[in-house]
Protein: Adenosylhomocysteinase
Amino acid sequence: MALSVEKTSSGREYKVKDLSQADFGRLELDLAEVEMPGLMACRAEFGPAQPFKGARISGSLHMTIQTAVLIETLTALGAEVRWCSCNIFSTQDHAAAAIARDSAAVFAWKGETLEEYWWCTERCLDWGEGGGPDLIVDDGGDATLLIHEGVKAEEEFEKSGTVPDPNSTDNPEFKIVLTIIRDGLKTDVRRYRKMKERLVGVSEETTTGVKRLYQMQETGALLFPAINVNDSVTKSKFDNLYGCRHSLPDGLMRATDVMIAGKVAVVCGYGDVGKGCAAALKQAGARVIVTEIDPICALQALMEGIQILTLEDVVSEADIFVTTTGNKDIIMVDHMRKMKNNAIVCNIGHFDNEIDMNGLETYPGVKRVTIKPQTDRWVFPETKTGIIVLAEGRLMNLGCATGHPSFVMSCSFTNQVIAQLELWNERKSGKYEKKVYVLPKHLDEKVAALHLGKLGAKLTKLTKSQSDYISIPVEGPYKPAAYRY
Amino acid sequence: MALSVEKTSSGREYKVKDLSQADFGRLELDLAEVEMPGLMACRAEFGPAQPFKGARISGSLHMTIQTAVLIETLTALGAEVRWCSCNIFSTQDHAAAAIARDSAAVFAWKGETLEEYWWCTERCLDWGEGGGPDLIVDDGGDATLLIHEGVKAEEEFEKSGTVPDPNSTDNPEFKIVLTIIRDGLKTDVRRYRKMKERLVGVSEETTTGVKRLYQMQETGALLFPAINVNDSVTKSKFDNLYGCRHSLPDGLMRATDVMIAGKVAVVCGYGDVGKGCAAALKQAGARVIVTEIDPICALQALMEGIQILTLEDVVSEADIFVTTTGNKDIIMVDHMRKMKNNAIVCNIGHFDNEIDMNGLETYPGVKRVTIKPQTDRWVFPETKTGIIVLAEGRLMNLGCATGHPSFVMSCSFTNQVIAQLELWNERKSGKYEKKVYVLPKHLDEKVAALHLGKLGAKLTKLTKSQSDYISIPVEGPYKPAAYRY
Amino acid sequence: MALSVEKTSSGREYKVKDLSQADFGRLELDLAEVEMPGLMACRAEFGPAQPFKGARISGSLHMTIQTAVLIETLTALGAEVRWCSCNIFSTQDHAAAAIARDSAAVFAWKGETLEEYWWCTERCLDWGEGGGPDLIVDDGGDATLLIHEGVKAEEEFEKSGTVPDPNSTDNPEFKIVLTIIRDGLKTDVRRYRKMKERLVGVSEETTTGVKRLYQMQETGALLFPAINVNDSVTKSKFDNLYGCRHSLPDGLMRATDVMIAGKVAVVCGYGDVGKGCAAALKQAGARVIVTEIDPICALQALMEGIQILTLEDVVSEADIFVTTTGNKDIIMVDHMRKMKNNAIVCNIGHFDNEIDMNGLETYPGVKRVTIKPQTDRWVFPETKTGIIVLAEGRLMNLGCATGHPSFVMSCSFTNQVIAQLELWNERKSGKYEKKVYVLPKHLDEKVAALHLGKLGAKLTKLTKSQSDYISIPVEGPYKPAAYRY
Amino acid sequence: MALSVEKTSSGREYKVKDLSQADFGRLELDLAEVEMPGLMACRAEFGPAQPFKGARISGSLHMTIQTAVLIETLTALGAEVRWCSCNIFSTQDHAAAAIARDSAAVFAWKGETLEEYWWCTERCLDWGEGGGPDLIVDDGGDATLLIHEGVKAEEEFEKSGTVPDPNSTDNPEFKIVLTIIRDGLKTDVRRYRKMKERLVGVSEETTTGVKRLYQMQETGALLFPAINVNDSVTKSKFDNLYGCRHSLPDGLMRATDVMIAGKVAVVCGYGDVGKGCAAALKQAGARVIVTEIDPICALQALMEGIQILTLEDVVSEADIFVTTTGNKDIIMVDHMRKMKNNAIVCNIGHFDNEIDMNGLETYPGVKRVTIKPQTDRWVFPETKTGIIVLAEGRLMNLGCATGHPSFVMSCSFTNQVIAQLELWNERKSGKYEKKVYVLPKHLDEKVAALHLGKLGAKLTKLTKSQSDYISIPVEGPYKPAAYRY
Structure:
């Protein structure tokens, strides 16, 4: 792999597929801005004061049109930004091109190899002299992981002279991470520690990354403050639910053109993502069956008329399989062998290990026929029947379609902007320790409020006497912290 | 008012409408037991050990068929029980009769006056010599309120010799409470304090009562431990949501036979109750408009295609109005005057003050025409048009129909049984202080699990390796405490 | 059986349950009028001209509140009316009372025996001297049947002197019909022929009756013109579909209070009635399975995500069974024996023979426990488990609830009024032969138009140039005759 | 325009975008076959007998993957086939390539000019010596139109020597038709009459074409028999309804990525297409408003909770506008000027004149910005706000997505195969006159039956006694001709 950074005429670094797509990206950015009222309101409210003046922000988050509007909101507030994607298939090349040309350093393209992916991540974190970023926007936690692993390796190296051994792991991706860190040690033995020292904090976008953060918090391994954006109501109950309700059928249709009506669809997991997927499939006329480990979520599905069975019960009868669990080993190659011809298998959960891609790829005699990019038919030698796997088991809505639509991402990303502002503004106050925080309720409600006007909504106002009666301030917050919505 | 307690042949006290309805009640109880697998599982699991042996339980909770199954679960576990309803219209007389005859002391009938209501509450708490109950099952907090007000009055009386003055309040209901307490002081100046001393704790069923408890906890006024059953997921996200989705249209249809399809329906509030109501109306073919103060809930409604407007915007165009807020003064008489002829106005929120019944009743020249019990047409003198008010502004699903169906109440009431067991088992351990507690997640999940078999569901089991991967025990709990479902 | 006709102070005949319910009936009539804009528009448009002056109308159609508004529309247009119900359980006694007291001769009460039912039908057709009615409003065709069978018997008697032999049939209901005709022959051998001669025509309400009419038309047996109201779009695609969508869950809830969410519900038949039922159950959260003989209807169900199986496949797993076929022998006693404990079995199709009530009643050792009127639990001796049968297998929405709501019945009944007017106005023109007719499209569209204002709808108008372009008159009709909507 | 026909190595003519896409097309054809059980069943049932041996079939119907499976079904039954698309944007180039290479003469590509479009149509009908095709598969009636206009011109020319004058019409498309015919007259004055003489008949796919046929039938202008495939239930109630329910959101999402949830969407027309569109938008979370001229369809929408307003009422508030009427001048430039910024305007009805594209294109100062092919933003000079028009006002589901999915097209196209077989088999029997016919009910039911197995459905069978009772043969047809489904 010999990747080289390119530079714009103004000297900003980038590596994208094709800079000439920048005009097309800009046109779509213009459309997206109209659909992202929360971000535009942030520009209007905070832009004049330039609160991010002097701040370096590194982002590792799907490099899409919507993310481009986020990036240009951060720059509109004064930040310098470097960016990479958090998924090898999720970059929209025209979005990357527009940002690279106009606004920030971007290292991302659709269809990276794993080596390229981590090269991009490293580039994104590398601000040259003076260490790394002041702030990180993370999705899934890979940027955070790299720094933590880097620091660990440096400390080990300082202590014992040992360098990380890529062969110590079977995980092909972690092998790459260790290689990068090992190679980094050769040029600067304090590289990641310098990053850590400069870092004010990270705001994390998604369930998987948040889970990692809480685990690090628990073991005391967390090196800097983190804001859990995922658990803002206006993120997890919107982007996960309504976003997937939109983008799951979008991905299915673009990838396969299959008629959803009449089909039997299995959704593995009935969390917010699963709820959105099941709703979309049901509404499109599929008969939906859900698999669940959690009896409460299972009972919720049943109350919507959705059957709860195990994957084994239905594996040979269903037409569409969607994993949404955030866990691993949900659909194994042994399941796939038993499926109907041309059953569709896809993942919208987070990592590709929800589907046993490794088992599939190494199945003796299996044949892969690529219908089109991100749509592969895998034919089993015994039966000559095939299954259709989307996006190589990675996020199908980003790999096969364009991810969540702008409006719902505006909710998520307005939380990101607010979280980044909060970390930056409080960087010297000591308000945030090396722990994981959620945004306070009133900011969550503010994010929602910024999105109502676009939809023509008119809120009711509490009277003073009503406010007294229920002991809730007229201007909110309106719910206790534990309220479930 | 000269009410007198009656006695069964076995000497148990009661006051119900008609004991001869006991056979009918028993038949419906038999049906309900099949629909309440959680309660029946409690009988099977805990019954043999008779854990409530020696416990006196007083309950103030709608005296319906479902509650009857709860009561007989408590007695099956060894408890002695006294019961009253927490709403003047919600008693099902055949249920009350069956319980009075067979299982517990009941003081409840459909259509109590407010005086009768509080007489029943007092009877329910009065266990004769030795003070009051060991445990309270409360709904809306009236039993808890009476004890707290009683204790306050006794302490004031001891200190200053002052007795409560019913004329010190404008609230007609509180006037009655004060009268009862005042009269009680004449016979026993330690009556409520004795109750308090014996009391192990209360488990509270509903949002309104829980709110009162937290307020008392905050001011330090809470006299005994309380378990907040309402905020068990298997309660608030089931009974409130799916229960109302069932019972709102049921009440509308029984009261008015009105066709819901094609109508414009306004739902005030989009919490769990509002969500259930809006879903039911939408599915039945109404065009639903929601009013909200909370931008997050408003945005949720919008994502379901529901318009958010203020009541003023739509008051003269809508056909059906439902209050679900838990607040007061939602629909005022000035709104009602502007409504279409035969617009339907009802409340499923908690208290009747969501609708300005007082304003309506005292409106000059207004005429009330009772179509049938709980269905009144109020005609305004200026326009000669009328509106139809259900259940006199009280809970329309209990006043006009039969409340929530058995299956969903089995979820709620299994939480009650578990909460009562927890309080009783830990009565000497000091585990519970004078605070408000929620049940731990694993018990919440257990409640759900007890209801899956009846619906033919089959859960998936985590493998050891999956359990390790996501750091969640194979047997649960499966979600963090703040998870929103 | 010794039934006797009663008379109002004005001398009009009647036989109802309780005339004192007339006031209550009138209150509900007042409400219903507001919900029946089509009928009220007919009163306004045609009333002044008194087009039915001199016409005698006999109706055999569920004697409900909605039918009462129809009757008073007919009388408002100048007709004299006699009425009976077409179902032994469907009469609403307060509606019958109000009409009997105020407007027409009524012979109907809830819970007639079969003998009483046919006595009422005969009374309804008997106008004393001068033969029978000029016009019949029929539902299911029983009034039409009686006249046809009567005429046949009279002709046979004239020819051969033979009188009908009730023992010639096994069908208990037809036995009664033959008895009535036989007894009638004793007093007047030309009774039914006189009726036939006077009769201008019949308008038939429902699928079953229409099917009978077409069969008679085919064999040449039809004795007078008939208008098929059922196949007006504004009847069959509204009342059957939206009416049942409303009244099926209403009946289920009133009869059993069962929670529909989470249950498995089997709908036998996916015609308009079945579509309405399936939609209602699905929306309430049941998992719906449909049985069908017709592959087109089956494919429609599949497109909505509904599984198509045979009754045998699901009989032991489902919780709710609904027949909607218009055929017989759908659910047999052998099916019922295999059902889960407390499975609910009901019919909304037309006749009670969709369910094998005879097989159930005569099953050796079976025990019937009446929970409440129209709700019976039948316990099988082998298993001691029981099933719950609604309305004794007859129309459950009319037996257990109040039938279709006013608004949708206004569509159906406006068609009836227009059909009756058409028959009456053309009685001398020869326009209608002894055949079955449907109303012309423009009248069907008119019925719909009369119902839009109440729902706040605003139609678009064709421009002249658009009208030319699609060759459709500006004022309609807008669709070809075969259009399916 | 200088288009030239190309030839495959086997000598078959074609003109497509890029023959090298044939492999990709073949892969998608393989997938589609699995989703088109009706067509595959036709191959299995009829293929061996080669019924189309000797038949020349010309088709003018969107050249998509699904149509490719139709074409190869016709060739599998022995036909020779020539094909063109019936819409300038609807061709899928990889489908055209695969068919051109492997199976039939194809003249079609995505993005034809109108001149190119009619050149393709002419090529499709031109079988060289011996006149034209034996059979036509038509969609919208353009092939049929060309022959009828050609014959008319030739007869006029023979009579009066007059050639058609393209300048006699303002309609730019008809100008091209006249030019082609005029030029044709120069080479062969009997060209179209020879076609007519050979022609056995046409089967027409869609509402618009069917309407034209009935108009010609009425005036006696129809030159050959026609089978109206559109009005097979398994076509119009499936493809129009369920097809659009699938492909409308697909087109919206691919073209604009806009979030549908929360938006206000206006659907003009509530026929089958409008019903499918409204359902899709509602289910995706939009608030849907329908405009209608027909009161019956309007009342149907109201029963689903959909508001009926005029376009004028909502033009400035809605976000998405969809025309589905089959009429012209639905959304005029004056409407478009009043829309919100970035309102989306699209047509799924049939012709592009539902939207006033001409008014838009000629609006003074308007600016067109092409975001990507088929997605244009038109900016008005006064407001600088723009609207987004999809597929230049033509069928957006074909222009912006891939049209209806395979499964539903299998229903439609199985009707086409059966219709073509019927015409061909009866070509000498005189069964079909120069009229428009629909397929008999039993064939319609057969089409449905062929699609049930794929969805796992199991039909119920009538017993003999049930069949007798309802006078319907055990094997069907199950419904009278006028049944509306």
Q: What stands out?
A: The longest strand of chain D covers residues 367-372. DSSP finds 19 helices and 17 strands in chain D.
